[in-house]
Specification:
The complex is a heterodimer. By secondary structure, chain A is mainly beta. Chain A is built from 11 helices and 49 strands. Among the domains of chain A are: 112 residues, Carboxypeptidase-like, regulatory domain (Immunoglobulin-like); 141 residues, TonB-dependent receptor, plug domain (Ferric Hydroxamate Uptake Protein, Chain A, domain 1). In chain A, a hairpin with an 8-residue loop joins strand 28 and strand 29. Chain B is built from 20 helices and 7 strands. In chain B, the strands form 3 sheets. Chain B has a two-stranded antiparallel ribbon. A two-stranded antiparallel ribbon of chain B has the order 3-7. A two-stranded antiparallel sheet of chain B has the order 5-6. The chains are: A mainly beta, B mainly alpha.
């Protein structure tokens, strides 16, 4: 009883809300439900009823009287009301659901159950950026995932949501620290520039700069500074489209070389005002740690190392064995320093609804994530999204407006504890002394928790707003324009108080430092467009012309505040005794383009799509600013040929498509063509001026030629659908920071290299509807990618600074290593192949073993099962690749750093085979050198393939009968739950050894819809 | 009508965006290279920046990654007490690897300083509006810096490329030049600097090199090359400037900002700031945090040597152990106004250069006189050495206790006297004779094959 009264109480509140919205949205809603009767109609009657799906009321379903202009939209609790003749047929339509036609046969009450349209992919509308196409008529390579695919993942970054779900898109997480980033490569590495392979992100039509913000010195996330993509809340995203081939990306011209990621946020739908509330919470842990030596093994190693060098009196700095440190402690520092549980909490709510002409959505989200590290660190994020869409009564004028605002607050230790956790001796002393103070063990212990004294904080405020106005000048001619504005404000600080140093250093607050970075980035964009459509007989022509004007202003400043009277004043810059501006800069980026598209479709069988763009960018010197890009795409839908549809009735879809064209890349930063001096920030009586860079006024666009052919098929009414695509992208005129030797004074020069890089591969997707009954459905989607990357040509490679890094015919991402030839049973040292036979192992001559670090193939297997109200989704991700293992960068066995447990099997006396080398201290040059070479040999790169249960979620919708019409979904979700691998190291997915790997996360959530 | 209006507006909007839209102005944090050298103030700011780079990074910084600390550890001046994860441990153990980032930083920062100096030389030469006196002075300073940095590169790495242009097409494929060629270029640059630099100091506190600073460095280069007469004459030229320079008899004044024994010093990084050397070497309780003076160095001080009392300091630990740290610079944090700057060239060294050069030429009396000037300032009796060999050994011993923890003097002295293999193995078990040179950074050889072969032993 109590529950019911609670629920009905809630309902009253919601009615109140509804009322407010009804008033504010005028009486338009009423119009849609009760369509005025035409005087000429005979035997008109009002038909009412309810539309449901899975026993849930469906709002926003469009109901039309067949052959007439009368429409209605289902509203309150799925109820609708429409005027029709008793002999009419009603059509019920809703995107993603099967369209139903019901003959009235004089009925006045109709209760309809809609079925989810798991089969009919043909009708899915694909957003291609400046235009949209029906999936079946698409000539380019575009994949789409929708909220349904990723909403069950407990992730806060949009790239995490995409991982493993799309062919040709390779995403890896680069840190497990909250607020960290991901690396993405769409169809491989095109540019020799490591920072030049990011796709273009476009959010609701507004390009979003994904360049990292912040500075290394003030940033908590070790491998990479902050990624602005964290501002996007996956819960607000309706769909993500990834554009890959020339046909799809050429219209993005200079910015499309690495693919385009289009993000569309959720919009309101006409119908009953809908409230959704979602609460979830859970925890995360590190997926895998390294297996390291315990104290007994470690101390044995250390003592043996000194014995091997005939040292009996341990030196003063060997505090682990010279008596300073206890011999009986045994700590797994990985567990102690990174083995905690990170807590996750997310609360999300949204209100949406509207009339046929005006719809709205307002949503809010708050999430909080703590860390696996000791200490009180956390990452919180709050955002608000609001959208309004409006259509004028005569449907000529349309308006869309979206504004999103995100505030992020991240507090992390200034370092990643993993670094020390894997190196620290297992018998290192306790972290705290008996009095509860940090233990410095008589100044011999560089206590890792000194970093708890430090704090790296980042606050980011991100506003993204856009408006789209459209006006139909003629029936087939539409003028529209989008306007976008972004405003990113980022402030980060890294506090290094004197208390992080041992007391013996005598540090006082007068040597405390605060590093602070402020970064701002504002941009606006205007894109007017004219769209024309015409049909003549079986032929359909669509044309689009438009222009882009964009400007981005950015500024960044990093300062050091040094010397305080007290550490309590650390965050008060005014009390610092010295302020140094480490870097400061402003930049303006201007971008202008004209673009167009012509699409010709004959009889829905033959389609040709032409796109082009002329781009100008201020990132290039005068004379090199403009370039043209274009593509042609064609498709033949052979399943629409009469002959085939008659002879092969089981073939529900058959399409051959191909495209060829160019796109470019201007991700090089601003002003690189100028010869300037800039302020260094350091003072020598006056503030110094330094040469900004080695300059080259003549560099120009990098161009990328893309070729693709694909076959798309559907069988048995699309219960089985497949895509097989082959692509070949060639990138030339490589624009790179050419690495230069230090003797030039700098480490690189911005210039075009006459090198050509080819990415080619096969992408296969398969989607099957395995079972489909009213109560049970099971859908499987598989994607699989084989990708090859190859340096085709590089004139002058031998004499260039890449000579020892690249090889013609090999991928860009290779490592040239020593070839490990086993342990010398006599000396106990690692041996390597002396490739040039000069009697010594030296680089670069002997680094001849080539290892390819690109994945050989990768993919995902996604399953969606539904039984009644119960849903199970899971995604396996698999990657075949090589990765740096735990011997990469590990000190020589015997040094005062912990070692992988496997190193216990080591050489002790002549004849031993190890496999690991003699224990040695730093004094044994030969052992140190051999170990360092081991770390850069092919022995430190091994199989890093894995199969990972990336995501699993189980959810249950409580029957509406129990909840009195309130949708209530309970679910459990897991991320990175299970990993199958033979990798020698921590996490095989992870490419930054020694940093915190991605976390395994489990959350539970409750969602209410009413 | 309305439609035509809209369409016209649209077309106008599209066409109005002519190419000039993509023009951007120079950011206000930057100046063009041409403009910089047309104004004396900005040209001087460029030169000043080179000194900040020398002070903060590269071989000569007083930070722990400069050679004062690293070569102290590498040789026999300092013992290591820091964090084993610290890159300095490899210096202490003579276990440097070609992949060492510390060594790569030394190399790259040095050549970045050389680039900046060459840019000054080229920029000043092109300048239309700088006064000739400013042109000469700035060119002289830049030549001096170019020689100074190459001198230390040569000592640490052996044969090195001597870079004299900013042209990256030349500099990207330079080869290592034999030591004798580099010495020749060093002398030519320093002789040029001596002729261009004014005798008077520019600005306050001897923070910009003058003619005599360049002469002093030239004197050292002659000495290292065995040009005894030239070394002696150049040292005399400086020592004769008694109006400007002299030995401080109060040892506590030798390293203060106004010391009259200073020829050239690097200004602190802020008003009120002091030296990085003090921050690196000083510790307050034991065990030490980075390094401590080695027992062998402490034993090298003769009885009654006031330098031990004034330039080192004893720290006692809880259990009665003792350590010493260098105490030439005494201010390890900021003061109201700066009290100490990092002194790169000083009169004490010049007396010892001349003593050595004179002894080598058989002028034993003059050699003893010079040596005794330094000894008497330290409160010591005149030397008892008589023969040429004894005097040369006495100079070497004196240099050890006079110039300890200053820019690797001790290590370079042992090296040019060919005594590394005889002296270092006593206290340095990791020493072997190929350690006399640092490795050329591995990435540098990778990027420029002409730098091969790697130094022996790496």
């Amino acid at each position: 009883m109590k529950t019911i009264s609670f629920i009905s109480g809630r309902r009253h509140v919601s009615y109140l809300f509804l009322l407010v919205f009804y008033i504010s949205t005028t009486n338009a809603l009423a119009h849609t439900n009760i369509v005025p009767l035409s005087a000429t109609e005979q035997q008109q009657q009002t038909v009412t009823g309810t539309v449901t799906y899975n026993n849930m009321p469906m709002t926003g379903v469009t109901i039309t009287v067949k052959g007439k202009n009368t429409t209605a939209i289902s509203g309150e609790d799925g109820k609708f009301s429409i005027s029709a003749n008793g002999t009419d047929t009603l059509i019920f339509e809703y995107l993603g659901f099967k369209t139903q036609s019901i003959a009235l046969n004089n009925r006045t009450i109709l209760n309809i159950q809609l079925e989810e349209d798991v089969n009919d992919l043909k009708e899915v509308i694909i957003n291609a950026g400046y235009y949209s196409v029906k999936d079946s008529e698409r000539t380019g390579s575009i994949s789409k995932i929708t909220a349904k695919d990723f909403e069950k993942q407990p992730v806060t970054n949009v790239l995490a949501a995409m991982q493993g779900r799309m062919a040709g898109v390779n995403i890896t997480q680069n840190t497990g620290i909250a607020g960290g980033g991901f690396d993405i490569e769409i169809r491989g590495q095109n540019s020799l520039r490591s920072g030049g392979n990011n796709p273009l992100y476009v959010i609701d039509g507004v390009p979003y700069a994904s360049d990292l913000i912040g500075a290394r010195v003030t940033s908590p996330e070790m491998p990479m500074p902050t990624s602005p993509l964290n501002s996007l809340n996956p819960g607000d995203i309706e769909s993500i489209e990834v554009l890959r081939d020339a046909d799809a990306t050429a219209i993005y011209g200079s910015r499309g070389a690495n693919g385009v990621v289009l993000v569309t946020t959720k919009k309101g739908k006409a119908g009953k005002t809908k409230f959704i509330a979602n609460v979830s919470s859970g925890f995360g842990r590190v997926t895998r740690f390294r297996k390291l030596m315990n104290t007994q093994q470690y101390l044995q190693m250390r003592k043996e190392a000194f014995t091997n060098e005939n040292i009996t009196e341990y030196p003063s700095w060997a505090t682990d064995i010279n008596g300073e440190w206890p011999q009986d402690r045994d700590t797994d520092w990985q567990e102690t320093l990174a083995g905690g549980n990170a807590g996750f909490t997310t609360v999300q709510g949204s209100v949406s609804g509207g009339s046929e002409n005006t719809q709205f959505l307002v949503s809010g989200n708050y999430s909080r994530e703590t860390t696996v590290f000791p200490g009180d660190f956390r990452y919180t994020k709050a955002n608000v999204l609001s959208t309004i869409n409006h259509k004028s009564e005569n449907k000529k004028f349309t308006l869309g407006f979206t504004a999103g605002y995100t505030a992020r607050d991240n507090k992390q230790p200034s370092i990643d504890f993993m670094q020390e956790a894997i190196a620290l001796a297992p018998n290192a002393p306790a972290l705290y002394d008996d009095a509860g103070n940090l233990n410095w063990q008589n100044n011999t212990f560089n206590n890792p928790l000194r970093y708890l004294q430090t704090e790296a904080g980042a606050k980011t405020y991100d506003l993204l707003a856009n408006a789209q106005l459209g006006y139909s000048i003629l029936e087939n001619l539409q003028l529209r324009s989008s306007f976008g504005f972004t405003d990113l404000r980022h402030k980060e600080t890294s506090a290094l108080p004197s208390t992080m140093f041992a007391p013996s250093t005598g540090r006082t607050p007068s040597s405390s430092s605060l590093f602070a970075t402020t970064a701002n980035r504002q941009s606006w964009i205007i894109e007017p467009q004219l769209d024309y459509k015409i049909s003549i007989g079986k032929a359909k022509l669509q044309a689009l012309a438009g222009a882009t004007f964009q400007q981005q202003d950015a500024s960044q400043m990093t300062q050091q505040f040094y010397g305080f009277a007290s550490n309590a004043l650390l965050y008060n810059p005014g009390s610092a005794s010295r302020i140094t501006t480490l870097s400061s800069g402003e930049s303006v980026y201007k971008y202008q383009a004209f673009f167009g598209r012509v699409n010709f479709n004959f009889a829905q069988k033959y389609i040709i799509n032409l796109t082009g763009r002329r781009d100008g960018s201020s990132r290039f010197g005068p004379g090199n600013r403009f370039a043209n890009f274009g593509a042609v795409g064609a498709a033949w839908i052979f399943s629409n040929e009469k002959l085939i549809s008659e002879k092969l009735p089981f073939l529900s879809m058959g399409k051959l498509r191909a495209s060829y064209g160019t796109s470019g890349n201007d991700q090089i930063g601003d002003y690189q063509y100028l010869d300037t001096y800039s302020t260094s920030g350091y003072s020598y009586g006056v503030s110094g001026l330094q040469p900004t860079r080695l300059f080259n006024p003549d560099f120009a666009w990098e161009s990328n030629k893309k070729l693709e052919a694909a076959l798309e098929t559907g069988f048995l009414n699309d219960r089985i659908s497949t895509t097989v695509a082959w692509y070949r992208n060639r990138s030339s005129n490589q624009l790179v920071g050419i690495p230069l030797p230090g003797t030039t004074g700098f480490s690189e020069l911005q210039a075009n290299l006459d090198a050509e890089v080819e990415n080619s591969g096969w992408e296969v997707t398969l989607r099957t509807v395995n079972v489909k009954t009213e109560n049970f459905s099971w859908i499987t989607s598989i994607n699989y990618t084989i990708a090859k990357n190859k340096l085709l040509s590089f004139p002058g490679l031998e004499s260039s600074s890449y000579a020892n890094q690249l090889v013609i015919g090999q991928p860009l991402n290779i490592v040239k290593s020593y070839h490990y030839t086993g342990l010398d049973p006599q000396t106990g040292l690692y041996t390597f192949e002396d490739a040039n036979g000069d009697g010594r192992i030296s680089e670069p001559e002997d680094k001849t073993a080539i290892k390819n670090l690109n994945p050989q193939y990768f993919g995902g297997v996604q399953n969606q099962l539904r039984y009644g109200n119960l849903q199970l989704d899971f995604l396996f991700q698999f990657v075949k690749q090589l990765n740096y293992n735990q011997y990469y960068g590990t000190a020589a066995p015997g040094n005062m750093m912990n070692q992988p447990a496997a190193v216990v099997s080591h050489w002790q006396q002549p004849g031993d085979t190890g496999p690991y080398q003699i224990y040695a201290t730093d004094l044994n040059d030969a052992a140190i050198t051999a170990n360092s070479q081991f770390g850069s040999s092919d022995a430190a790169i091994s199989d890093g393939s894995y199969i990972r249960l990336k995501n699993i979620s189980l959810s249950y919708d409580l029957p509406l009968k129990w909840t009195r019409g309130i949708g209530c979904r309970l679910s459990v979700q897991g991320q990175n739950m299970l990993t199958v691998t033979s990798f020698k190291g921590a996490d095989p997915e992870f490419k930054s050894p020694g940093y915190l790997p991605p976390l395994k996360t489990i959350t539970t959530s409750l969602q209410l819809t009413f | 009508m309305k439609n035509i209006f809209f369409t016209t507006c649209f077309l106008l909007l599209c066409l109005s965006g002519c190419d000039s839209f993509t023009e951007v102005e120079l950011p206000n944090s930057q100046l063009t290279s041409n403009a910089v050298f047309e104004d004396q103030a900005t040209a001087d700011a460029v030169m000043a920046d080179i000194y900040t780079k020398i002070r903060d990074n590269g071989l000569l910084t007083g930070n722990s990654w400069g050679i004062s600390n690293q070569l102290g550890l590498y040789g026999d001046e300092l013992d290591f007490y820091g964090n084993p994860l610290d890159g300095s441990l490899a210096f202490y153990n003579n276990a440097l690897l070609a992949s060492s980032t510390e060594v790569a930083d030394m190399w790259n920062n040095s050549y970045n300083q050389v680039y900046a100096a060459n840019a000054v030389i080229e920029g000043v030469a092109k300048s239309a509006s700088l006064a000739q006196a400013d042109k000469d002075r700035l060119t002289g300073e830049a030549l001096f810096v170019r020689a100074l940095v190459h001198f230390y590169l040569l000592q640490c790495f052996g044969d090195v490329p001597y870079v004299t242009t900013t042209d990256y097409n030349v500099n990207r494929s330079v080869s290592r030049q034999p030591e004798s060629i580099v010495y020749g270029l060093l002398m030519a640059d320093l002789e040029g600097a001596v002729s261009l630099l004014p005798e008077a100091y520019t600005g306050a506190n001897r923070a910009r090199p003058n003619k005599w600073a360049a002469t002093a460095l030239l004197s050292r280069v002659y000495l290292y090359e065995g040009l005894w007469a030239e070394a002696s004459n150049a040292a005399s030229a400086v020592l004769n400037q008694t109006g400007l320079y002299g030995v401080e008899t109060d040892l506590d004044r030798t390293f203060v900002i106004s010391s009259k024994s200073t020829l050239w010093q690097l200004m602190a990084n802020s008003a009120g700031g002091n030296t990085y050397e003090a921050q690196t070497f000083i510790f307050f309780s034991g065990p030490p945090t980075v390094s401590a003076l080695s027992p062998s160095l402490m034993a090298a001080f003769e009885q009654g040597d006031q330098r031990k009392a004034h330039w080192t300091k004893e720290i006692t630990g809880d259990n009665g152990e003792t350590w010493y740290h260098a105490y030439k610079y005494k201010e390890n944090s900021s003061t109201g106004s700066s009290k100490e700057y990092s002194i790169v060239l000083r009169i004490g060294e010049l007396y010892l250069i001349r003593a050595e050069a004179r002894a080598e030429q058989g002028e034993l009396i003059g050699a003893k006189e010079d040596l005794d000037i330094i000894r008497s300032a330290a409160g010591l009796a005149p030397t008892t050495a008589v023969t040429q060999t004894d005097i040369l050994n006495a100079v070497l011993a004196e240099r050890r206790v006079e110039l300890f923890t200053e820019y690797g003097h001790r290590f370079f002295d042992l090296k040019r006297a060919d005594k590394l293999d005889a002296v270092l193995p006593v206290t340095k078990p990791g020493w072997d004779s190929s350690d006399r040179l640092f490795p050329i950074p591995a990435t540098e050889i990778m990027r420029n094959r002409n730098l091969a072969p790697q130094n022996a032993g790496y």
